[in-house]
Amino acid sequence: MAIDSVVVRQRVEDLDAAVPFYEKLTGSTASRFGFAGVGLASVGPFLLFAGSDEAVQRVAGVAATLAVADLNAAVEGAEAEGAEVVMPIQPTPNGRRAVLRHPHGGVYEYVGP
Fold first, then answer.
1. Which of 13, 43, 60, 63 could lock onto 30 through a cystine, CB 3.0 to 4.6 A?
2. Phi first, then psi: what are they for 104, rounded to 5°?
3. What is the pLDDT of residue 17?
4. Residue 43 near residue 22, CB atoms below 8 Å
5. pTM score of the predicted model
């Protein structure tokens, strides 16, 4: 199992106000989408999110997003090393995802094909 990249998650109060800063910082154009009542913007290595306290709780409890080339293999490998599946693999607007709790307590979203 190899992690190809890490995406830093950042809650913001106003997505429209925050996106231009991150676009200038990274030199990337934001890709915006919604998921489970949360507004999101992917900008370079950042995933910005905004919404009501209730909606963002589903997103805020995850420390980072880990992109992998083979999601099935990554989840199986992490489980074999003691990780616990919090949310099994499921489709999203941008591919597939799973959420795992690592043996030392960190909670991470894994994304990939």
1. 43
2. -100, 10
3. 97
4. yes
5. 0.79
